[in-house]
Amino acid sequence: MNASTVTGAQRCSARDWIVDLSMFLLALAYAVTTSLELPGASPPGVEFGPELVPPGPPSTWFEGAGRLAAFLACLSLWWRRRWPVQLAVALVLVSVVFPLAMGAMLIALFSLAVHRSPRTSLAVFGVGAATAYLHAVLWPDPHLPMLVTVLLSVAIQGAVIGWGLTVHHRRELVESLRDRAVHAETEAQLRAEHAQHQVREAMAREIHDVLGHRLSLLSVHAGALEYRPDAPSEEVARSAKVIRESAHQALQDLREVIGVLRAPVGELPQPTMADLQQLVEEADEVGARVEFAEEYTGTVPERTGRTAYRIVQEGLTNVRKHSPGADTRVRVRGAPGEGLVVEVLNGPSPEPPPPTAGGGSGQGLVGLAERVSLASGRLEHGPAAGGGWRLSAWLPWPV
Length: 399
What we know:
Blueprint lengths: L2 H35 L20 H19 L7 H14 L4 H14 L2 H21 L7 H82 L5 H30 L13 H10 L4 E7 L5 H21 L5 E8 L3 E8 L16 H12 L3 E6 L5 E7 L4
Parallel strand pairs: 1-2
Antiparallel strand pairs: 2-3, 3-5, 4-5
């Protein structure tokens, strides 16, 4: 338990103590004020027989009993939260005989309506309304008819019960709003976490797409230099140049990715269909023998072109990893209204891939499938006839 919890508990206990003391003093003030107004005698219309007359004047005996009952009734209000129903019923019955306890009875009815269900409160109110007639019989008002006295007593009890029910429903409403606020805060936190998770996935896809292509070039050429140390100096220099340029470009791509993470929405540098030719030329420079065919007319939408670029990039990266030196064909065809078809087809590799290339985890195709799905397209991949591998995707191209 931390310090704030202890402080809150102390504050709540102090508040309850102050409220209980206020209710006790209020009921006691009512009893004292009423005792000064009532005549010090037995209830009007009730005469004690000779055999029932206690020692001393009857008025003194009954007045003392009434004051004691009123004090005990006021004192019992300290336990109104623990036994609200029992206390309210008891005080309703006691106030029939001893009017000085009516103040405590009204407070008990109010507390009952606040802390218990409306059905229970109305049931006790029915008991109070029934005893109002008995009270009017025992304590008739010389200035008002009995019916008016009964109706006035019922109206006062009803007003107190109604006030308590209003407080009860208000507390339920506040609690419900508090629960809704907590629930909404939890949902907002979950949505934020989900959004962060999606952002992380998008970042992982972007880093894989951008850096995977460059790093695969480095891996292929570094592996060739490692396993062919007797290669001609011109070939070694050419491979070293490619490694240097690819490493430099990888650094540039990494800076762009970091810039993407820092840039506002709408300012993200992304590749387009116009960059496909350069991508194919870079792959062709490292001996992949890539044939490129563009068979479409019109302007490809930006999102579709960006997805097509990533498909070709992932396809060429996989060719270098798993089928180095294989003949590869990249074909892009389509038209507005028909869609755009992107196909990367490679034949069997003339030589086994270097061990430095690794077997791959398949996460590139998983991320690519998700990217195509987000673009409302379809992705197909698998072994091609006669050996090799085929990667094909259809992307929507609205009119």
